[in-house]
Amino acid sequence: MESEQLFRRGYYRNSYNSITSASSDEELLDGAGVIMDFQTSEDDNLLDGDASVGTHYTMTNGGSINSSTHLLDLLDEPIPGVGTYDDFHTIDWVREKCKDRERHRRINSKKKESAWEMAKSLYDAWSGWLVVTLTGLASGALAGLIDIAADWMTDLKEGICLDALWFNHEQCCWGSNKTTFEERDKCPQWETWAELIIGQAEGPGSYIMNYIMYIFWALSFAFLAVSLVKVFAPYACGSGIPEIKTILSGFIIRGYLGKWTLMIKTITLVLAVASGLSLGKEGPLVHVACCCGNIFSYLFPKYSTNEAKKREVLSAASAAGVSVAFGAPIGGVLFSLEEVSYYFPLKTLWRSFFAALVAAFVLRSINPFGNSRLVLFYVEYHTPWYLFELFPFILLGVFGGLWGAFFIRANIAWCRRRKSTKFGKYPVLEVIIVAAVTAVIAFPNPYTRLNTSELIKQLFTDCGPLESSSLCDYRNDMNASKLVDIPDRPAGTGVYSAIWQLCLALIFKIIMTVFTFGIKVPSGLFIPSMAIGAIAGRIVGIAVEQLAYYHHDWFIFKEWCEVGADCITPGLYAMVGAAACLGGVTRMTVSLVVIVFELTGGLEYIVPLMAAVMTSKWVGDAFGREGIYEAHIRLNGYPFLDAKEEFTHTTLAADVMRPRRSDPPLAVLTQDNMTVEDIENLINETSYNGFPVIMSKESQRLVGFALRRDLTIAIESARKKQEGIVGSSRVCFAQHTPSLPAESPRPLKLRSILDMSPFTVTDHTPMEIVVDIFRKLGLRQCLVTHNGIVLGIITKKNILEHLEQLKQHVEPLAPPWHYNKKRYPPSYGPDGKPRPRINNVQLNPIAEEREETEEEVHLLNSTML
């Protein structure tokens, strides 16, 4: 069949069904680190070679180094625009890699000619390190600016510093001599809005005024954020990670990583976090870093002219984004490798490491947290964990998996409803409603009123002698002589009150996060998920601590929890719960554990973290293998083939290829029998993105594949630059122009834009292999042939549609026995005589064969010479 329709601008906003209405046949290409041995073949061999009789399926690759290099060699004067891509299309990784090899070969061949050429060669070699250095510097600087601005604007909802308006609450009280230890956050320099407006610091009037001002500022920040996004940069909304994953897989989304998106996302991220919505800034920081990487890549021709090389920079940029988001450079590299990157060669690993290092160094120099540390939630626990604690840690993992499964289903259901109802047409109203509900409910509870990062920090912190939080309101033993290792103590009234408030905060966070993630403001998911897990973990930790105190003679506690011993650390449970809930939502494992122990400095507690994260993944996978980012990719209809998803069905390439019986015939070009006008009419009458080129209508032998965009650009360029090219000019894709009458107009040779070795499979290739080829090589399309005769085409759109249909109509787990025989009919009929064949395909299928088998024969009959 033909290539698919061009993507329209609204493609990304539609549901999965949008792929049916408007999508590109140019799909993801991975290049997933597969080393292939491409073979050289002459054109005659390519045209005349038949599939061997004894093999069930064959595959030829269209990314041959020799063929693509030959293509480039033929371009004595490259046609401007050929090889570029339209919006909402996927890059050709094979062609981009061949272009890069040709560029590298050309530079190496000239570097010994002069000192200038040697300097150009060195510049080209170091340009990769320069671009990731600039990306790391910009990412660290912007992250520091966002952290400082968000802290200041968050405190602005409660009051203002009179001595220095640019100080937040904590900074305002640093130089005060009138601050007490119990009320360290209160100082004369900081005044609440009630003190400024009505002159009251306490009482009902003060509480109501502060309540009103809190709601006012929250709504103002939220309205300003959504307005800026809607007017200036619609791509600045959301987390950005689903789109980053899709872009790194080879998809083109013009403007998503542009300068306007970077500017608006940086500003609105501060406003969204300061508004108090249940969201975080960590996910959007990955988007910000990738915008920096994309912008700086245009300064270097090596990356600006090659989309595949540019994605190596974006992979390094995503590592820098996580590095500055959490202060976790190693975790950032692993996050890029495990979660977002589709193609991650070894040199990208090194550059990602360097970019994360530079970004972390810049952030540490800025010191936005004021604690002279890179990590966000540094903790220092004084007791180890014990073996019996693995059971509550695993329970927290179960909770994290259940929370992740619930959140993914609930959030996707709400986002789908938003897309299908009129409510989705009013994004500003939705943001205002969510912000209003969040502010009204959050203010009365001190744990929901807090900035989410401050809440997590408080939940992670161990109760020492200097802590005055209600979470540390224990009944002290006056005989205790230790000041560092405080023994387990009975909980006081403040602890029980805090537990009830934390339970309410847990319910509030769960509900509001479902409705907040996906609204039209920058919204990350890392911090809200960690806050939910930290709340649940702290509650469980306090419960286990009190259980060990009152029942220290139980078998499980007897060995470790003696009277006066400090054996339970509730803050550790909060840290484990945070990791479990984030793992349940994102299904990350290795990178998540590294991020959390870098985030907290708790390297000693890596085993509990690993146990909880793996448990949450197993529990979450029991309800569905998709993480939240993969679910949103599928919801938005992005052309993304997840490498983690297994294909277990038994269909064949003939079942998926186009055209089907009810479709129009396959649109093809002949190598030397069509005119310019014929090709232009075919392009105007169809919306396909490419056309197989065959020898003639009679033979149907495959010559190559030509892209619609390249054909259009080449014909337009020829009309402008070559004399004698008219509508009746013969178009020739062959190496030698056929003899024409003397009065014929000048022929147009387009062999230079032809892919002479497209990827092909036979009609009986199992779809399991076809899907694997698309995933690992990131193909845009694959032609289906039989003995060199073109039968149809399989594109990424066809595979996505096929996978969606199989999910709705699952095949039985135990297929019939003949599926194991590649679904070929037996060679002999019931009478003992050989079955008739045409082109080596049997014409009398057995009764169990599907209807598609008859259609294959129909297609073969129609292609007979």
Task: Give the tags.
single chain, mainly alpha, three-stranded mixed β-sheet, disordered N terminus, disordered C terminus
Written description of the protein model:
The chain is mainly alpha-helical and 865 residues long. Helices cover 52% and strands 6% of the residues. The chain has a four-stranded mixed sheet with strand order 1-10-11-12. Strands 4-6-7 form a three-stranded mixed sheet. α5 packs across α15. The longest helix is centred in the first third of the chain and has 42 residues, at 115-156. Residues 1-76, 478-484, 811-830 and 832-865 have low confidence and may be disordered.
Head-to-tail CA distance between termini: 20 Å
What Rg, in angstroms, do the CA atoms define?
32 Å
Largest beta sheet: strand ordering: 1-10-11-12
**Fraction of residues in helices?**
40-55%
Major sheet: 4 strands, mixed
Global morphology = elongated
Query: What percentage of amino acids are in beta strands?
Result: 5-15%
Low-confidence residue ranges: 1-76, 478-484, 811-830, 832-865
Mean pLDDT: 79
Keywords: Antiport, ATP-binding, CBS domain, Cell membrane, Chloride, Endosome, Glycoprotein, Ion transport, Lysosome, Membrane, Nucleotide-binding, Repeat, Transmembrane, Transmembrane helix, Transport
Subcellular location: Cell membrane; Early endosome membrane; Late endosome membrane; Lysosome membrane
Main location: membrane
Domain CBS: 657-721, 754-813
